[in-house]
Amino acid sequence: MTDDRLIDSRAAQLRDRLRGQLIAATATPIGPDGFDAGVLAGYLGGLVGDGVGGLAVLAHTGRGPFQPDEVRDEVVRIALRSGVPVIVGVNDVGQAERAAALGAHGLLVFPPDAAEAVAVHQALWEATGVPLLAFDLYLRPYPLPVLSDLVRLPGVAGMKVALLRDDAACKDAIAATVAADRLAITGEDLMFVPSVGWGAQAALVGIAAAAVPATAQVLQAALAGAAGDTTRFDRYAETIFGDPVDGYVQRMLWVAAAEGRIPPEYAVDPHGPALPDDEHERVLEVVRAL
After folding, report:
1. Domains in the chain, CATH or no CATH each
2. Which of 10, 33, 50, 55 would you call most buried, defined as having the most Cβ atoms within 10 angstroms of its Cβ?
3. Full-prediction pTM beyond 0.90?
4. What is the rounded distance in angstroms from the CA atom of residue 92 to the CA atom of residue 124?
């Protein structure tokens, strides 16, 4: 195990606070008249009430890169009232500094080019002093040597691994993170239970943007080594993350509306791909089966 002096105490504190937790990668509901603070507050409060131990706002599920600064700021303010750790998705130092000024507990760093990854993470840490979660994403995965360097930076509390279906790379990333005494966080909606078996110690997933009780139950069972038959849960995840994969944000908004978490008119993702006409009912069918 790595000498604990190599991790900053602030990063170590967040690492320990998130261990064993389900962190919801939250949506950002936008209605026909735009952003509504009350809708978001009710939505986030419901997720926490149902058992999430952290909120990851303005990440991919929340379409963070598309939100204007004033909406981003309000999302962070509302999330911080929830009483659980708030992780803010960021692309650059400007976004990181705004989140830090508002009191964010952590920053989820959208992956830059691998050649710049260490320098970018170090710059964000030096600019804010807010603990970082690195992000190994299937769209631009880190080579293992880069990933190993990232998880040994003092300000990095953990690594979210989201490699979709690459189980070998997922195992390697989790092992490197654990070896560095950082928090290995599964972002593997499609390899959820297996990734916990490979050593993930927490989860930060889009399938927790709604249907929280089922995901929380499966996570806790998996952490205890007693997941059992997860056929219905696996079918749910596979439906949400079916082709086109980026349609998952729209699918999760439908689930949130069906559960009464948001008004139906807020269950629209203007940034996602077009989905088949029968997709809505197909998604609700697998949710009902949960």
Report:
1. 4-228 (3.20.20.70)
2. 55
3. yes
4. 8
